[in-house]
Amino acid sequence: MGSREEILAALRRAAPPDPGLPSEPVRGTPYADLALQLGEAVQAVGGAFQRVPDAAALREAVAALAARLEARRVVSRVPEAGAGTAGEAGPADVADPHELEGVDLAVVPGRFAVAENGAVWVAGEDLGHRAVFVIAQHLALVVPAAEIVNDLHEAYARIRFDGPGFGLFVAGPSKTADIEQALVIGAHGARSCTVFLVG
Amino acid sequence: MTGHAERAARFAADEPRAHWHDQALWFVRLKRDRMAAAVPEWEALRERAAAVKAHARARLADYLEQFEREATRRGLRVHWARDADEHNAVVHRILSERGVTRVVKSKSMLTEECHLNPYLQARGIEVVDTDLGERIVQLAGEPPSHIVLPAIHKKKEEIGELFHRTLGTAAGASDPTYLTQAARAHLREKFLAAQAGLTGVNFAIAETGGIVVCTNEGNADMGTHLPPLHVACMGVEKIVPRLADLSVFLRLLARSATGQPVTTYTTHFHAPRPGGELHVVIVDNGRSRLLAEEEFRGALACIRCGACMNTCPVFRRSGGYSYAWTIPGPIGSVLAPGRDPAAHGSLPFASSLCGSCDAVCPVKIPLHDQLLARRREVVRAGGQPLAKRLAMRAGAWVLGHRALYELAGRLARLALRRLPRALLYGRWNAWGRQRELPAAPAESFRDAWRRARGGGRG
Q1: ipTM tops 0.95
Q2: A32-198, superfamily in CATH?
Q3: Which of B31, B363, B392, B327 is nearest to A181 (CA)?
Q4: Strand ranges in chain A using DSSP code E only, listed in sequence order
Q5: What is the pLDDT of residues A98-124, one digit of tens each?
Q6: CATH T-level topology, domain B39-285
Q7: How many beta-carbon pairs below 8 A join chains A and B?
Q8: Which whole number is the average pLDDT over B4-22?
Q9: Is there a contact between B267 and A168 if contact means CB atoms under 8 Å apart?
């Protein structure tokens, strides 16, 4: 008998009676003002939050962020936010994700944001190379203002894994507290994370 | 034989450090409390998490088969391993068949449990731990002392000295930001040069055939999105039935672990990256045996948040190494004796049975009941030292005889009042170490009762 069969048989022999799977949906506590709560939550996880009225304002805000960060190499996956550095193609156009090392700022679309915890859902099909959101020194996430859900329960009702079969929640910049519990921003991934809420 | 008490005594001998360790973990516990209190439905989430895990345990084989089916359909490759040796061999075979000699790894308690790193290193494969805390202890040649905060036992000055020696940071530098940035630069080179990324698995979803990995640093993402090969190792108990169940566990996990509303990166892998490979190794290594133990199977619900460690008054004052096992603290003290009662028999006694671990556990594992049950096992198996066995027998005899009990009480009160300190706090009295014995009351409760009731028998 192979390992697979042996393990499954052992688990079946040992299985306790099934108490049943709870099926009623779980609900969180609703927030009165989703955008307000989102802004607070993003800042609580170490991110920056900026609401802009439209695409033109977004372009300006992203350009200002890039200037502030002195970003030389900007990759944009959000056409409305600008095209990225002149001559710099989107990350889908580099052959190997290792070539993304040295990107100063990545601008990435978020499908929706979660008011409860400041997390933004990033879908694999929007990324080109998966690595782009983590290898860039700084990250900007662009989320339409209409796309805010209350909590993770609502979030999972929206998530599907078709296409590239990849997606993640990003909540703020990369961080660690592994040295004496001192919070340090910028462990391995983005040193800053700005969420632009558009609309 | 050296047990937890002896190892804890060594840690506690450095009193300022033990106090510092205690405070550092209590700080994390308080952050967790604030987060839990901010979620009105916190208790309902815990109930739901416990119920989902209880159901998943009962149907584990079915759900693993479903996971395998769905994952395979999505292009993941699923492997099975009965024990640590087979797990290590499977991982090594996947790596060596592809000529991999440089691997980056993100945190996985399972691979610690299986001692994967030395196995691969002995076969010519470089394994770099990339979680900052894990890299610190790896450079120091130590195991992690906590499952979420691997280097919580180290002071920043010691890490500064270690990095000076191994990474060439400035002598005497101990600023956490400076040291973290040095590690970032060092590990980025490793990420860019790696041929494969190893990760653990926080959750595997039967319904969709995907896995979820949570980190704050982004090391699992740096480690898996650059090289073409990702190997993820999971215990059989990581299964959740449905995608929607994740919402419950993810709302609990980071809040319980570090007092954050969610981890920075919660990455859902449902396919290998284009042109790449994603392998999932499903490991039993004693878990089916634990499932068969009625009193202890609930421990399989553990989502490895570490909250029981941060709150445990014994863990905080004795340090992770005093447990001498991969998973320390209350949950480790339940799990370890199931693996090897002779080696880990002292662990269930590393508890005051205060129940604080039960109160914070996000999946409601009845830890202090289980610790008590493990004690019973150890005692039945005769695993107690002779002195303790005799003392317990004497105690049972005294407590079983009323006259003897009253006499013992009178003698104890007399001794507390009259005996010289040197004798009272002698080596024989473990209770007199680092604490004052209580002042002897003027009379016993029994005497007071008799007096109040006008001399009637109580």
Answers
A1: yes
A2: NagB/RpiA/CoA transferase-like (3.40.50.10420)
A3: B31
A4: 48-52, 74-76, 105-109, 112-114, 120-123, 138-144, 148-149, 166-170, 175-176, 184-185, 192-198
A5: 999 999 999 999 999 999 999 999 999
A6: Rossmann fold (3.40.50)
A7: 251
A8: 95
A9: yes
